Amino acid sequence: MAADNPDITRLVDPASRFDPYPLLAQFRAASPYVVSDGLLMAGRHADCSAVLRDPRMSSERDRSRLSPGAKGPRTRNFLHLDPPDHTRLRRLVVKAFTPKVVAKLEPRIRELAEGLFQEAARRDRFEIVSELAYPLPLRVICELLGVPFEDRDLLEGWAEKLSEALEPPFPGLVAPRARTDAARARAEAITYFRELIAERRRSPRDDLVSHLVQAEESGDRLSESEALATCVLLINAGHETTVNLISNGILALLNHPDQLELLRKSPALAAAAVEEVLRYDAPVQMTSRVARGDGHIGSLPVRDGDTVVLMLGAGNRDPDVFDAPDTFDVTRPQGAQHLSFSAGPHFCLGAGLARLEARIAFELFVTRVTAPSLAQDGLTYKPNLTLRGPDRLTVLFDDIQGPS
Question: pTM here?
């Protein structure tokens, strides 16, 4: 790494957890650049967007010259596949996440969220992460998949360990134990879903696991390993990221009371607020691609097998794209240009569901919770770099009103 480029390991410093964005601005200004042999970093919006859309940039991590080799059961997770395999698998799953299907979930999601707010009303404080942000999307994904809710703690534990292994391949960042724990969690999840899939083959229900078993397009079906990989992907990408989206959003509103009051007076802005949270404090801060052949990112040469880490959180605050990028503004018209759901063929399959869950959570928070404030010492962060969000977010309040 050149002497004038920022040291990427500074991101690991716990002091940067609460506000990494001044540091990300330095990385963005210097990018793209070589971090180490085979590892590149890009933080400008234009570069990140171009790489995400470039068919020569592969999502297959095993192509990387840095790949340590996977341990544990091998599954075909379409998030880490390229076309045509990615296209085929995504096509078989996408019907469960169409806008029409997601819209039908709103009454049930609102009912679940209302229940969580009413439970919080019986207490003197509201711990947003454990009492809202985790249980809401977890309950939704359990119901969608057909997982008994009494097994929710299993899913939550697996998602947490899988998330810890999603860190970028910066030297020394991911401890061997985290990789081992993730491999164990993946193996346990596969065993669990293999039994659930076998049960749904015998007795199909109106749930996503049954849909995956029966999914067919032009005579094509998901194999068992592909169905298993999709289930594991959904409990991780379909849950953990939404937890962070809800938590980051409520924290942003608490830190910007003018925006909270604006949203309280105009709840119809909730959908725009979701987009601004995604841009301002992205729940997914980084992703990566592997070069398939030699090429360039801007003027930076890229070799076959190089891993390119894309700093989405930095790109989402690029002043070349967003006016006053460090300002949280729920009326911002440019919010949809953010990269928090990726871009190109790997645009997030569950984006509509995540948006709906977060919109409902924000609507209820601003309209139900009276005089909310962050408790002293009420904020701690998870150690993850890739998936950013609080570990604890404790809110004090005067009252939580019931439905009118």
Answer: 0.92
